[in-house]
Every structure is written in C-alpha cells, then in structure tokens.
Amino acid sequence: MKKTQILFIFSCLLILGCSNTKKLADTGDADKGWKKLFNGHDINDWFVKINHHLVGENYGNTFRVQDGMIRISYDQYGDFNDQFGHLYYKTPFSHYKLRFEYRFVGKLQKGAPDYTLLNSGVMFHSQDPRTMLKDQDWPISIEMQLLGGLGDGKSRPTGNMCSPGTDVVYKGSVSPDHCINSTSKTYDGEQWVKGELIVQGNKLITHIINGDTVLQYSRPTIGGGIAHGYNPKYKQDGTLLSSGFVALQSEGQPVDFRNIEIKQLPDAER
C-alpha cells in the first residue's frame, strides 16, 4: 500500500475518532447541571397545601413515597369534597428546565369533578403556598396540564396550559381561554410519559412531551379568574410572573411522578 494511501486512511480514522469523542462530550454536557428535586426516598424538601386545610397538613396521606415514586392517592378520603391539593418544592425558581415522568393509575375518587378524570398537572411560577388561605382551591400560577387518553379513540392531548388566576400571551395576543391545548399525541392507559418545561422567566415558556415540543407561549401575568378563595393582596392583576414555586397537583385522580429534576439556566440563556 502506498504511503499516501496509509496517511489518508489514518487521517480519516483520526477525524472519525475526534468526531465520536465530541459526540460523547456533547452528551455528557447535556446531562450536566441537573439536580434531583425528588430524592426517591421522602418528600422532606416539599410541603403540602390542600384546599380546606392549613399549609403543611397532608390530609389523608395524599402525597406519599413508594417504590421511588411520589404517589398521589385518595384511599383515606371519603367524598373528595373539592380538596384540590398541591405538593410544592421548598424554593422558587425563575429560569430553568424541569423534567419529570408521570402516569395515571386507578380510578377517579368519589365526588371529584368529572373534568378531573385522568387529569393532573405541574404548577409553576406559583405563589408561595404559605400565602394561600385555608379555603383557596388553586394557587395563582401557571399549570402544565397533564391528561390521559380515555381509550375511546378520540384525541386528548397532554402538556396543555391552564391559567388559574393568570393570563398568558399565545400567538401574539392575550389568550381568552383558561386552557390551551398542545399538539401532543394521546397517551392511553397506565404508561409512563416524559414531560419537560423550559421556563425563561416572564419570556418564552416551552412544553415538551416525550421529546416533542408541543406548546409555546409567553408573558405569564397575574390576571383572569378560576382561582377562588385567595387573599386579594396576592392577586395584583397585570403583574408579570418571572419566578415562583413548582408543585405537583392532586385533583381526585390517582397519579404517580418520578425522576423529577431541574436544571437552572445560566445568565447567557436569560
């Protein structure tokens, strides 16, 4: 074999090796900076607020840890009685990526509204639960709404946006709708689904389901209706929301969450 051919082959192998090394490095970089919000063992870094109860009271052991999951259950309830609840991480966030997995299990609790069937959510930019009144149903916040398919062959997207006590700008104008549907597929049964949020303060917010971008909007702002029983001091309409608490929702449908992680974005991405 000629010397020039040997040099050519060696150069190709060297370039290929460098390329593969770069890919591995890129993959490693993508996994850097993530922090577990749920340690898989307990919810000591989280606290509870359930409608009709004071903050910190985990009525009926609604939020519990089992087999490395946060399980939202109602087996110690009687009638649901509008006891909408949320489990909040202990500190607020502003610019970040949040990723998690969820699945719906079991049956809707007796007395829960029909619309909460296979329905849960992740709240963000939420008010501090310690500012919520005993009989406040939902926090003033933005919700990444999670829905399961009803098994009837009809579309029921997940990763939607709902706005208790808030407004957002969608397609260039303030949305008149409390909820905006995403473009996601429908996920039936008790399968795990991966969700991700990219939150850039009061700017762009992106919803991702199983790797697909399914919804984007901007300018989350206090306003609108839906939330009830709040202290008016904490609902100053027109105030842009650039940070807040993250919470998992209980609305009467059993649901499991796992692998809840956050990555705060550097200043360059703000």
What does this entry look like structurally?
The structure is a single chain. With 270 residues, the chain is mainly beta. Mean pLDDT is 90; it is low at 1-27. The chain has one helix and 17 strands. The strands form two sheets. Strands 1, 3, 4, 6, 10, 11, 13, 14, 15 and 17 form a ten-stranded antiparallel sheet that branches. A seven-stranded antiparallel sheet has the order 2-5-16-7-8-9-12, with no helix packed on it. It comes from Mucilaginibacter pankratovii.
Question: What key attributes describe this structure?
Answer:
single chain; 270 residues; mainly beta; Jelly Rolls; 2 domains; 17 strands; 10% helix; disordered N terminus
SSE topology sketch:
Blueprint: H1 3-30, E1 35-36, E2 46-50, E3 63-66, E4 69-72, E5 85-89, E6 95-104, E7 119-126, E8 142-147, E9 160-162, E10 166-170, E11 173-174, E12 179-180, E13 193-200, E14 204-209, E15 212-222, E16 245-250, E17 255-264
Antiparallel strand pairs: 1-17, 2-5, 3-4, 4-17, 5-16, 6-13, 6-17, 7-8, 7-16, 8-9, 9-12, 10-11, 10-15, 13-14, 14-15
